[in-house]
Design a protein that fits this description.
Radius of gyration: 27 Å
Helix content: 10-25%
Strand order of the largest sheet: 1-2-3-4-5-6-8-10-12-13-15-17-19-20-21
CATH topology of the largest domain: Leucine-rich repeat, LRR (right-handed beta-alpha superhelix)
Number of domains: 2
CATH architecture of the largest domain: Alpha-Beta Horseshoe
InterPro entries: At1g61320/At1g61330-like (IPR053772), LRR_At1g61320_AtMIF1 (IPR055357), LRR_dom_sf (IPR032675), LRR_FXL15/At3g58940/PEG3-like (IPR055411)
Oligomer: single chain
Shape: elongated
Order of helices and strands: HEHEHEHHEEHEEEEEEEHEEEEEEEHEHE
Organism: Nicotiana attenuata
Protein name: F-boxlrr-repeat protein
Pfam families: LRR_At1g61320_AtMIF1, LRR_At5g56370
Length: 386
């Protein structure tokens, strides 16, 4: 095709998005040849994704990685994704320390770029990065993602201070951080945190609109969230007090979307006259929930028990309503009547899915005792008996 078409040759040899996986010495030779051509011809690079694999196992490649990153930065890269070699089980860390040392990522050289908009680091080590040469300020970076990146509170503080215009931040399982303290982030709009065990998290960001928090079920987990302009909030696997959630919802006057997954020991809560809430998703959260949201348009409930939801009249005109129940215990007429009564409280349901693992014989006369309950209106009914 390259011989037949100059257009094709020009197109494939000047691709702006590059993805390289360096596992063997032969890989480094191919990558080096390609990037030298990009450097010599000053071919623009929009997205540069590089993965440094375990099999390479040598410090000799480090100067080449320095060179490749430098070429990408000089050629105007906007999106830089780097994955190192730290995604290994602790049992084999000691065995590979001498064979496969962590690459000393030149983080502040990268941040000094005037074109970089997004930086994604995975399986990297920033604990040994020296701050003696000063910290470069990045006025172009808008999104920063750190997944399984080793760093301490001081390094995180310096990173955030050097990126004053960040609008998106992801922190996922970062060893070395005993506490995540995010204060006075003036431009931040989106935040995603996957916390470790016993890791304290404090978030105070007046501009934050979208937050996702995934924690471990730990007694000592301490979460403080003060964000008045939240539009969406996802909380998963978090030990919180019963008063935490209602207080957070009441302070967030613009909250439109709320997702709650596996919040143990939460006895339920009351959404009090939330005029902004439109979408509510509840999964594996027991307790009595009272929903008073007149503008609610979507409700998803997923659990192993019939929901104990008290929905105000104003919130019953739902455009989308979905109930999924995974029932592992033995069922009887009382259970079905309870479910029927709940479903009858709303005008109609878009979808109801019931997955049964065991069910007792149902006496029709027992069901008829509750004949006064209105017949639920369900658009789609899925029943799966295992």
């Amino acid at each position: 095709m390259s011989i037949l078409s100059k257009t094709w040759l020009q197109a494939w040899s000047t691709l702006p998005n590059l993805k390289f996986i360096c596992n063997y010495s032969i890989d480094s030779k191919i990558i080096d040849a390609i990037l030298e051509r990009y450097m010599d011809n000053k071919i623009p690079i929009d997205k540069f994704e590089f993965s440094y694999g375990l099999e390479h196992g040598s410090r000799e490649v480090f100067p080449l990685i320095d060179k490749w990153l430098d070429i990408a930065l000089h050629n105007g890269v906007k999106h830089l994704l780097y994955k190192g070699t730290c995604s290994l089980s602790p049992s084999i860390y000691k065995r590979i320390d001498t064979l496969n040392p962590s690459y000393p990522l030149p983080i502040f050289t990268i941040l000094a770029s005037e074109t970089l908009r997004e930086l994604v680091l995975t399986d990297s080590d920033l604990m040994s990065v020296s701050l003696s040469n000063g910290v470069a300020n990045s006025h172009s970076l808008r999104k920063l993602s750190l997944s399984r990146v080793s760093l301490d509170e001081n390094m995180l503080h310096n990173l955030l201070n050097s990126c004053p215009l960040l609008v998106g931040l992801v922190l996922e399982y970062c060893p070395g951080l005993k506490m995540i303290e995010l204060l006075n982030l003036q431009k931040i709009k989106s935040l995603s945190i996957w916390a470790k065990i016993n890791q304290r998290v404090i978030v105070q960001a007046p501009t934050l609109e979208h937050m996702s928090y995934f924690g471990y079920l730990s007694e000592e987990l301490d979460v403080v969230i003060e964000c008045q302009n939240l539009k969406s909030l996802d909380l998963s696997y978090v030990m919180i007090s019963n008063g935490f959630l209602p207080q957070l919802v009441s302070k967030s006057q613009f909250l439109e979307r709320l997702k709650l997954v596996n919040l143990p020991r939460l006895e339920g809560f009351y959404i009090c006259r939330s005029k902004s809430l439109e979408v509510l998703y509840i999964r594996d959260c027991e307790g009595i929930w009272e929903i008073d949201a007149p503008n609610l348009v979507s409700l998803d409930y997923n659990g192993d028990q019939a929901p104990e939801l008290k929905i105000a009249k104003e919130a019953r005109q739902l455009k989308h309503s979905k109930i999924i129940l995974h029932c592992s215990s033995s069922l009887n007429a009382v259970w079905f009547c309870k479910l029927r009564k709940f479903l009858s409280n709303s005008t109609s349901w878009s979808q109801v899915s019931l997955n049964f693992y065991e069910c007792n014989d149902i006496n029709i006369s027992d069901l008829q005792l509750h004949h006064r309950i209105a017949i639920p209106q369900v658009d789609v009914l899925n029943v799966d008996i295992m």
